[in-house]
Amino acid sequence: MIRNYLGFPRGISGMRLAQRARMQALRFGARFFVGLPVEELEAGDAHTVVLKDGSRVQGRAVVVASGASYPRLGVDSIEGFVGRGVNYGAATSVARDLTGRVVYVVGGGNSAGQAAAHLSRFAKSVTLVIRRDSLTVTPAAAGSPRRSPATTRGSC
Prior knowledge:
- It is built from five helices and six strands, in the order H-E-E-E-H-H-E-H-E-H-E.
- The chain is of the alpha/beta class and about 160 residues long.
- The chain has a three-stranded antiparallel β-sheet with strand order 1-2-3, with no helix packed on it. Strands 4-5-6 form a three-stranded parallel β-sheet, covered by helices on one side.
- It is extended and about 55 Å long.
């Protein structure tokens, strides 16, 4: 949830904000090409995106949205469990699967706080494991995980 974006006093989810931006861009004639593997980008007055199949798409502007990558914990023994109980940045997609379960979120920043707050609506309990000396999540960004009855805080 984005709570500090102008024009949304109650906040807005990143997904909803992106949907609204897309709708507005479509009204102005933007075209979207999603999920196409790209081979190269040729810059010029009209930029050209060369796709893997050889076809070409041209435009005055090109926006590359390549997704997010999350820092790994660096614990070799858990890498084999990624996608099978260990997830990175997947709180919204796995939340319903965690209904009634005991959940641990590692991190003490805004992303971890938001994940803990969201997961606490589904899980039996959520423990926020903080690897630093203190919790750095802002209450506005996390919806105050400190106050959720299903959320506890631990450190290592």
